[in-house]
Design goal:
It is a single chain. The protein is mainly alpha-helical. The chain contains 21 helices and no strands. The chain has helices at residues 3-18, 23-39, 43-55, 62-75, 78-90, 96-112, 115-132, 137-149, 158-167, 171-177, 179-200, 211-237, 242-260, 266-299, 302-312, 317-332, 337-355, 359-374, 381-392, 399-422, 425-432. It has 2 domains: 1-56, no CATH class; 59-292 and 301-432, no CATH class. The model has no long low-confidence stretch (mean pLDDT 85).
Length: 435
């Protein structure tokens, strides 16, 4: 391992980060410096080629399309109609509106694939309804923050796409691997909502919806249920690639929002597309910067040194898992999820294979760690997104309330991760039976 080169690269990246330089620029500049120290004058060329080759991948096309689909769903109020369906069937039970919020997040996760987009979309209408019914603010914010993070685990998932790009594991298999753990986490969240609501005894239970209300909600919102079902069926049967499924989902969302619900006019369409592509470019920028730094780290021999340290040092598999999970949780407090995966996975990949551990199981564990990072300050993006939405609605929110609400769900994510490690069939069964 080139320790003499690695140290200045780390120092430069930390200085840039603490100076307020955007994370992707910090990673790209630090990685370019390292590649320059390794390759001399051709280091910049290697850096540019790494960015180009990394983004010039058919599967990466799924990233901007899933992001654009999320914007269309949000602007087209499809998520709000979906929420109404679950609300009318669940609001009469204690904590039922919170449960409806989490289930809505799970369904939207099967369409969007990104955490912040789901949390922001659901928060825009669910927070208001839970506040009206007297739900404690920290509890309602926690449901949206944690439920939104399920977008990274329930397929389709952008982090799973990145995992597959780096490890060459089947994207379809990775998508299916996250299905049962995502549902398990959602069930645990719903159970906590009911328990916490009963414990608080401050909120009120809404009266049962009439048959007419239920039929109306189903009539207006069934497309919100149908789109994720179509996506999951295509993934399970393998009749289309993840990129093709992203394109189909994007087209379906467009047709429903513009021609069926008519919640987006043709005049509004260009600004919606512009917003989606702007968000997609930001994500691709993070991917490009992280790929440069990851390329340097790999070429500097860090990944092999890590494998020698763990496997050659006689550290058992459970020790490797525990240590790397703690590192990922710590780094997740400081880095955005995509950048964290792109930086750490090339380092850890050889060690995972040396232990003979399932890449599918490790993918789920890693994604759950990133989900936990979305719930933890100072870079917990879901915290800031939902806190901002709550303030826009005039609710007395602050970061302390957001963290208090998300903390129980953080521990439920940890429980889910432990169950995945103890019972790996939760991950491997569905991919093994996928067509």
């Amino acid at each position: 391992m080139e320790v003499g080169i690695l140290i200045p690269v780390i120092v430069v990246m930390l200085v840039l980060l603490f100076a307020g330089t955007p994370v992707p620029i910090s990673m790209a500049l630090a990685g370019t410096l390292g590649l320059g120290l390794l390759h001399g004058g051709s280091g910049l060329l290697v850096s540019v080629q790494t960015m180009f080759n990394g983004l010039n991948d058919f599967i990466i096309l799924a990233v901007p399309m899933f992001i654009l689909m999320g914007v269309i769903l949000s602007k087209g109020k499809i998520g709000e109609r979906l929420y109404s369906v679950f609300d009318v069937f669940l609001r009469h039970i204690p904590g039922g509106v919170g449960v409806a919020t989490i289930i809505t997040c799970m369904f939207l996760a099967a369409m969007v694939g990104t955490s912040v987009a789901v949390a922001a979309m659901v928060g825009s209408f669910a927070l208001r309804e839970m506040h009206r019914l007297g739900y404690p603010l920290h509890l309602s914010m926690g449901a949206v923050i944690a439920g939104g993070a399920l977008g990274m685990l329930i397929p389709p998932s952008l982090p799973m796409i990145l995992f597959g790009v780096i490890t060459l594991e089947s994207i379809g298999q990775l998508f299916m691997a996250g299905m049962f753990p995502g549902i398990l986490a959602g069930v645990l969240f719903c159970a906590w909502m009911v328990f916490a609501f009963r414990r608080e005894e401050k909120g009120k239970v809404a009266p049962p919806a009439s048959k007419e209300e239920k039929l109306k909600a189903l009539k207006e919102g069934y497309w919100g249920i149908l789109i994720p079902v179509i996506i999951i069926v295509m993934l399970y049967t393998g009749i289309a690639t993840p990129t093709e499924i992203a394109a189909i989902g994007c087209a379906l969302s467009f047709i429903v929002a513009v021609f069926i619900y008519r919640t987006i006019s043709l005049k509004e369409l260009f600004p919606v597309i512009k917003e989606g592509l702007t968000a997609a470019v930001m994500v691709l920028f993070i991917i490009a910067g992280a790929l440069v730094l990851a390329s340097f780290v790999t070429q500097a021999g860090v990944s092999q040194a890590v494998a020698d340290l763990f496997v050659g040092g006689g550290i058992p598999l459970w020790g490797f898992l525990a240590i790397t999970m703690l590192i990922l949780l710590g780094m997740g407090c400081l880095m955005e999820g995509a950048g964290l995966m792109l930086l750490m996975l090339p380092i850890l990949h050889p060690t995972i294979e040396a232990y003979g551990f399932s890449l599918l199981v490790y993918a789920v564990i890693m994604v759950i760690n990133i989900e936990c990072a979305m719930l933890t300050p100072p870079v917990g993006l879901n915290l800031y997104a939902v806190d901002g939405i709550a303030k826009m609605q005039g609710l007395p929110s602050n970061m302390g309330i957001a963290v208090k609400g998300s903390l129980p769900f953080f521990f439920l994510y940890i429980v889910t991760m432990i169950l995945v490690i103890v019972f790996p069939a939760l991950v491997t069964w569905l991919p093994a039976h996928t067509m």
